[in-house]
Amino acid sequence: xxxxxxxVVVFGAAVGRDGKPxxxxxxxxDAAMRWAKRRSSVRFLVTGGLGHHPPTEAEAMRRYLMDxxxxxxxxxxxxxxxxxxxxxxxxxxxLGRLRDVGCVVLCSSSFHxxxxxxxxxxxxxxxxxxxxxxxxDVLGPRRWLRASAREGPAIVWDVSLALARRLLRxxxxxxLGSNIVLISVILSAGKPLISA
Length: 196
Known about the structure:
Layout: E1 5-11, H1 23-37, E2 42-47, H2 57-67, E3 75-78, H3 84-97, E4 101-107, H4 113-122, E5 128-129, H5 136-139, H6 141-170, H7 173-187
Parallel strand pairs: 1-2, 1-4, 2-3, 4-5
Helix pairs in contact: 3-4, 4-6
């Protein structure tokens, strides 16, 4: 039996001109609500800043959840993240301040979840994921293929940045300096590019 409250982190997507969640964002929110229905104590942490149309993705999600009967007290918002990595970092900071976290599960599009989960893991957070159907039908084949293809390079980029962040936070200046010199020696085939 898990102690504490389950938090489901829902990653943002576009908000329409009408200020309501796009079809992709509704798909994510509906999956998160289905997951939450089977559990007794769940809180939602919705993340996403301002895109092309107001309000922020997080605020549009908060309203959508409340319109479907989720009490406002069960919804936390992170309205400043501008991409997957910054949203993940901000959500981890929020979760780190809470004392009632039992488990954390991530909810996003099926092609996006692996990147979200890897970022959380690299930053020291174990998570589960919400089961979600592919949004191929929601996006259409062409947009879905483009979004899926983009994930490979995006995973490499975001995980590299998350690793660098973790290294910078966890190592002393001396250890970090030694690692930079070592990396420079390796990259320059034995000739240091910089000196300690």
